[in-house]
Amino acid sequence: MPATEHIVVSCTINGESQVFLANERDSLLEALRDRIGLTGAKEGCNNGNCGACCVNLDGRIVNSCLVMAAEVEGSEVTTVEGLADGDQLSALQNAFLEQAALQCGICTPGFLVASQALLDENPSPTEHEMRYWLAGNLCRCTGYDKIIKAVQQAAEETVA
Amino acid sequence: MQAVKYARAHSVEEAISLLQEGGADARPLAGGTDVIVQARERTRKISLFVDIKHIPELIGIEYSDADGLTIGAATPCYQLYNDANVAERYPALVDSASLIGGTAIQGRASLGGNLCNSSPAADGIPSLIVLEGQVHIAGPNGSRSVAVEDFCTAPGRNVLGDGEFVTKLSFPAPADGSGARFLRFIPRNEMDIAVTNAATQLRLDADGNVNWARVSLGAVAPTPLLVAAAADALVGQPLSEESIAAAADASRAAAKPIDDMRGSIRQRVHLAGVLTERTIRQAAERAA
């Protein structure tokens, strides 16, 4: 099998210009975690089912395990690390803490990125819209009710 | 992950030459939600991804009453349900596009990719079939088009030759009195592969007679099916319990499914009838 080359990728990550070196076969998830050191996005299933690797790519949420690192040349990527303003957690992050919407935390970065994208597009979603939007994010310990309550709290605080 | 290389094409011609240079193991890359998994899990040998998303005509949606609807093959699903013309005139495409994976999949996955993956259970293909979709193909020997129902040849296989790829899908403008619906049966609420799926498009004339219909089934045969006998059972008369039951019978007769982890033969044959009936009723509601 021929060796793949390292490639140089330029993009914007969490609002900052980044130039990074990646293996041509790297997924965006691998590049974020292993090349750039942003370990917020998690590897769960690595095949697009669990949503733990969810990031925002050019305004839409995607599973970063299903994006080649080379594809993000020229793009804007937001990861969970981009949600807080310095040490100041976002309303959504605070709501997750206040509602105890996490236990082991592996799914949480994906839920936060996906929920934030929902609230950006639809500031007052119904519970059904929340559950439908988040159907691609799996949680195996907390259960979904506390997560939905947290998103509802963030929506109420943001709209109010 | 296989030692896959990546190249970005900016024109159809560039994509054709990159795919030719890459040989038999080069694959077009649109949303990647199937091919990246296949490359990683080594279910398909892939040495080169040719990214076709930066070719202008491969992304986007155009509609006119004269020419109908054209969708760039790499257009992600979310653009379909956010498009006013698609939502108003082709709601069956919204049915499909909003059921393929979850939100993060729909941010990338395209109906062109869903078609080219050629799964018997694809949630896009029955809608493409009943809407009389045409598949526009570019390749080293020029361009051609085929009807969607003639595109898939076996599970994971289709009519594309070496170096060929799908550029666009096109659909005629729906005639007055048309309605279409796609439904899928899965044992949970969302995020699953169809046990069986189905789509129907029909047209009602001013007197309430069905004057045209198409019925398509998925996950009941090696390829998605166009079930002509189900449509024939509807055409030339008003919709009635009898004609709907006859169409459902025709779908059950056409269904030749397998037993697998998702469903038994018996369940899938039953579902072919149920979903045929429900898509007919709901297509008629949309036609009214």
| Unreliably modeled segments of chain B | none
Strands of the widest sheet of chain B, in order across it, are: 4-5-10-6-7
Q: Briefly note the structural class of the backbone of chain A.
A: alpha+beta
What radius of gyration of chain A results from the CA coordinates? Answer: 16 Å
Task: Provide the descriptors you would attach to this structure in a database record.
heterodimer, A: 160 residues, alpha+beta, 5-stranded mixed β-sheet, 5 helices, 17% strand, globular, B: 288 residues, 5-stranded antiparallel β-sheet, 11 helices, 15 strands
Plain-language structure description:
The complex is a heterodimer of chains A (160) and B (288). Chain A is α+β, with helices and mostly antiparallel strands and 160 residues long. Chain A is built from five helices and five strands; from the N terminus they run E-E-H-E-E-E-H-H-H-H. Chain A has a five-stranded mixed beta sheet, sandwiched between helices. In chain A, strand 3 and strand 4 form a beta hairpin. In chain A, helix 2 packs across helix 5. Chain A is globular and about 50 Å long. The model of chain A has no long low-confidence stretch (mean pLDDT 95). Chain B has 288 residues and is an alpha+beta fold. In chain B, 33% of the residues lie in helices and 25% in strands. Chain B has eleven helices and 15 strands. In chain B, a hairpin with a 6-residue loop joins strand 13 and strand 14. In chain B, helix 10 packs across helix 11. The N and C termini of chain B lie far apart (51 Å).
